[in-house]
Write a structure and sequence with these properties.
The protein is α+β, with helices and mostly antiparallel strands and about 220 residues long. The termini are far apart. The protein has a single domain (about 1-210), classed as L-fuculose-1-phosphate Aldolase. Helix 1 runs parallel beside helix 5 (about 170-190). About 40% of the residues lie in helices and about 15% in strands.
């Protein structure tokens, strides 16, 4: 019974985050997908269902071998999610968006460089851009993993953004923050070339970010 309740809550959370991403303009129509690690697999949004119509019963459970059951098919991008869960044990949730500014930058095949210290939120001094490959393919998975490196996010050339975090809410927030960074970078480039922080400056930021936002117990 407890497992059923937990899974029901996780399914509802997937639907909620999908709706929020659309409401905030990070996806349109049935674009994008989200997932959350659950027991020996993960729960992922179904393919072809718009967020406003998505029901918890339509969210698909997949095991770590890429198998699923039931009437609903998983997002066509499930191989990306599976690869992240396999390769990054710290990943508890994955978000993929087609937000305007990250997608525009990805169409230039350019990363988000260290123009602002908040680039470090993705776990490095740059948010790279993976080489192009057709959606849903193993080639895209391979390119994504290479571009991710040790970080929590990467752009996908001519496609969008994929990121992960230790909760679904944090993963969605990270996607929104990176979209804002991409917008700021493109705005700055419209009037000149943004000055970039040095490796030493970004290293100092990353050091500070190791405890960023943490509160003392009882504070």
């Amino acid at each position: 019974m407890a497992e059923f309740v937990l899974q029901s809550k996780a399914r509802a959370a997937v639907c909620k985050i999908m709706r929020e991403l659309k409401e905030k303009g990070l996806n349109r129509g049935a674009e994008g997908n989200v997932s959350v690690r659950f027991e020996n697999g993960f729960l992922i949004s179904p393919t072809g269902v718009v967020p406003e119509d998505m029901q918890p019963s339509q969210v698909v459970f997949m095991d770590m071998d890429g198998n699923h059951s039931g009437a609903w098919k998983p997002s066509s991008e499930w191989p990306m999610h599976l690869a992240i869960y396999r390769e990054r044990p710290e990943a508890q949730a994955v978000v993929h968006t087609h937000a305007d500014h990250v997608t525009a930058l990805s169409c230039l095949h350019e990363p988000v460089p260290p123009f602002h210290y908040m680039v470090a939120i993705a776990g490095g001094s740059i948010i790279d851009c993976a080489n192009y490959a057709t959606f849903g393919t193993q080639e895209l998975v391979n390119n994504m993993l290479k571009a991710l490196g040790p970080r929590r996010a990467t752009l996908l050339a001519n496609h969008g953004l994929v990121c992960f975090h230790d909760t679904l809410e944090k993963a969605a927030q990270l996607a929104q923050q990176i979209e804002s960074l991409a917008k700021q970078y493109l705005l700055a480039r419209a009037v000149g070339e943004p000055k970039r922080l040095t490796d030493a400056e970004m290293a100092e930021v990353l050091k500070k970010f190791s405890s960023y936002g943490q509160q003392k117990e009882g504070a």
